[in-house]
Known about the structure:
Blueprint: H1 8-29, E1 31-34, H2 40-57, E2 61-66, E3 69-74
Antiparallel strand pairs: 1-3, 2-3
Helix pairs in contact: 1-2
Amino acid sequence: MAPTPLTPDEAARFRVSMSEWLAKELLEKGSIRLSAVDNPDLQRNFQEVVHRASELLRRPVISMTSSHGMTFELGDEQLPGQERSPITP
Length: 89
């Protein structure tokens, strides 16, 4: 059975809260692998999460999708035209 799609409000809350979570985890660990990200809708939501986390950290966040899920990595350099975020070491 396919998962129930998120409502627009649920999707917006998901993207905000997961962006904050992903930014925090990447600062602590440098990379993360999520194995349960195999649904195309969820993968699209996570692409928005990656974009938002990158803006929060003012550093690139790289995502890779495979049959095993999604992997996220924190890039070393700061984004062009931006100073490093005060929360970024």
